[in-house]
Amino acid sequence: MIDITGSASRGATATQIVHRRLRYEIVSLQRLPGAPISEKEIAAESGLSRTPVREALLRLAEEQLVDIVPKSGTTVSKIPVASLLEAQVARTALEQVNVRAAAARVQGSEIANMRALLVLQRERTDAGDSEQFHAADEALHRAIAVAGGYPGIWKIIEQVKLQVDRYRRMTLPQINRMERVIVEHAEIVDALADKDAERAVAAMTHHLEGLSAEDLRPIRDLNPDYFIGDINNVYEKWGDANIASQSESRPR
């Protein structure tokens, strides 16, 4: 099984362990937007002093995952619509770089590993295990970055897409959503196996689409207390959410 929380990393400090665990719980929606977070309770549960917990919460605040209000307490941040759009545009551009580079450099053993991750995603879908499904999803995108020679870009993407990941978790329960993701991933891997850069970029861009106002609004309407910001104002400013797809995904 894939380590989901990242808290098992060797040599991690107490602050890093708490930070990774809380970040995972927030991004996976185990801690819902607006929910209170007790520094004291987390310290007791972890068997730690409150200092590393406080430091972890400060890091989460910098990542816009928690809101710390003096004398009022700490809560899980609501998902900012504006940040969703910005993150999606940035991620799409970076993933296009990764997949184009991977098409030129990918090795047969790396393709085999990617196909194994697709099999794992299928198994986790059949088992109804959305958490390991998501972990395999992450591993596949990371493998593409490594194959392209840009593992550092994946680290940037991981940070950029935190808010998008929270939103995506709300879409997984949709009918056949995980099935569609597997099909989209297979199209990307097939293009990489054929070393077809244009097809790989187009497949990746299509895979990352889905943040237009029309896509976001029903999710927001089902979970109105989880979001902050006016969808119409944001999309008026940015235009279509998939602006990144209007350039790189087109054949040159």
UniProtKB/TrEMBL annotation:
Example GO molecular function: DNA-binding transcription factor activity
Domain HTH gntR-type positions: 12-79
Database matches in PROSITE patterns: HTH_GNTR
Keyword Transcription regulation among record annotations: yes
Record carries keyword Transcription regulation: yes
InterPro entries: GntR_C, TF_FadR/GntR_C, Tscrpt_reg_HTH_GntR, WH-like_DNA-bd_sf, WH_DNA-bd_sf
Alphabetic keyword roster: DNA-binding, Transcription, Transcription regulation
Entries under PANTHER family matching the protein: TRANSCRIPTIONAL REGULATOR, GNTR FAMILY, UXU OPERON TRANSCRIPTIONAL REGULATOR
Name the UniProt record assigns to this protein: GntR family transcriptional regulator
Lineage: Bacteria, Pseudomonadati, Pseudomonadota, Alphaproteobacteria, Hyphomicrobiales
